[in-house]
What does this fold into?
Amino acid sequence: MKVNLESMPRMVSGIKKVRDTIITNIVLIGEKSAPTFKEKGRAVLFQERLAEFQIDECTTDSYQNPIGIIRGSDRNKPPIFVVAHLDTHEPYQEFFDFTVRKNTISGPGVADNSTGVGVLISLPVILKQLKLKFRSDIVLAGVIQSIGKGNLRGVRHLIKTWNGPIRGAICVEGVELGRLNHYSEGMVRAEIDCLSSSIPGRDKRNNSNAILIMNELINKILEMRLPQRPYSKIVLGKINGGYHHGRDAFDASLGLEIKSDADDLVKELINEIEDITENLKRLYEVDLKLKVISNLNATRLKFNHPLVKYANSVMKTLNLEPKSESSESELSIFLSNSIPAVTLGVTRLKTLNPEPCVEIDPIFKGIAQIIGVLQAIDNGVCDGRKLA
Amino acid sequence: MAENWLDTNTFHHSEFSSIDRLVKAKKKKEVVISLCLPTLNEEKTIAKEIVIMKSELMDRHPLLDEIIVIDSGSSDKTREVATHYGAQVHLSSDILPDLESFKGKGENLWKALYVSKGDIIVYLDTDIKNIHHRFAYGLLGPLLLDEKIRFSKAFYDRPLSDETKGIRPTGGGRVTELVIRPLFSLFFPDLTQIIQPLSGEYAGYRDLFEALAFPIGYSIETSMIIDIYKNWGLEVMAQVDLDRRVHRNQTTRSLGKMAFALMQRFLTRISDYNMIQLKDELNDRMIQFENRAQEYQQDISKFDMQERPPIITIPQYRERFTTAPKKDGKSGRKT
It folds into this structure.
């Protein structure tokens, strides 16, 4: 059941031999625009590349998540999933210009998540180069509609409609190398919109200023009492409002996230914010609405689960310092479906401004750790184990 | 006008996307293929171009045999980056050092013939933002699969890249439409069928390139087309649709200079071919005006008419590339 950890450094030099193909994949994927709900172009390219690499099977599921399958040698073993979200935060543009330098790749969305997807579609070439075979089928999935309002729809659908058990999963993120995510906090993301001019028949001269109403709402949220345990947190993440310096703002919006180890507490807190919103709406006679855009249940793979322990060992063999944090991503969907999973980062973010830039050299270690963990799952590290 | 040419000799890159088919044709023809990239301060774009070409057309499919960068003396890290990614890098002035050295794209392309070993040479510009391996295999397709084609040239949509507003979908090819197409219509109507005569991406057989004179600067593309047309005819040429090429926008002022150089070369060429008679030498200075501090001031740019002779006439080249005939009767190579 053990992974040959001694072979890991050798693996890194083997992976370096296909450096140009890995960089090419990151660039070609990254230059294709893929905001959430508009991932089609990138999904088609994902499939085309896998087909070019002569992967055993290449298809899409009924939700249009592109999928490639590397067939394993044992038909009785359930498949192992390797997933990366296709969508990015960048708004649609016909073409993104990526720049490759001596040790960096830069371009919009390179870290989140072109590098992850580029590495994912390079795996058939890399595994061939390393002459590695697996007993399980390896399912490479680029999942759509993941981030923000996508609310992880792609991966939810993929797992829900997958016919049969799944042995384990690795979620691939572009950055940060060294992350070892194995749990997700309960989370709700919501947007509160205030429109002070949209109540029919209301005298516009008496409109309340939407920014001031939002300010009061924020003050009320800050007054809320949060318990020390279970851990909980409200993040006021983004705000928008108004139009002109000299005019009362007719509109304002607030984006917030509630996180906690306990799902019940998340529900309690969002209900309380809903009540505050409703009260202010009545008090000021404005159109004030709270809309939940995504939610996740708290799930966890314990720190002493063999998958986490092996992932730790693989990373330490590669001189990486594993860092464990909560990840509200594809991981939580696997874990909430009782599928052992971890999220790993591929490389390091060098800068964010003027545009995101990732380092090339660490990518090879990042890939080696993914393959090491993949081998551990294939060797049965997750078989017959409960998540927690 | 050769009426069928547009139909018979115009291709789309997707017709050649089966790279294995091209590799088979290459093996059958027993040819060596060189990709040559002329550079001057291209550190931002050169790595991407080399990495993609090397990955897709050398490592994964053995279509290209070498990637050669000919640099005009970049002051940035172009040469360092290109070497790092495995290209063969030459400083233009180091090639054929006994000859007087010039600076310009045409000079680099001409010298690439000396340092490369290919029977087929692919020339690509290095300022292409959306570089893709189709730029090379698209041009190679007609050369490898059609016996009569000896030269292929790219055409595409030319959206302009604007640093602040992203990509604007139209507006490229102004010099083509305002200068070259009218001149071709007047003197070479056949050549008007070439959609983008100024495109910087083309490929051809060595025996064709080595017999051509290469102007040093801007006008290499125009003179190349005219010379091939006059010496071998339109039927040896093909054009390939490469879909899109995103490139840097240029100011009207710099396009004006480009137009001057092209017209200067064009008129000289048609005079050489006795199609017109020039009674005096052409002025070699482009005169533009700028409004500086409420005053119009002259801005004069000098354009040398330097031109490299066909490289086959250079003894060092002949020494390097033997003329011993191959089985098919074509000239063989020593290196």
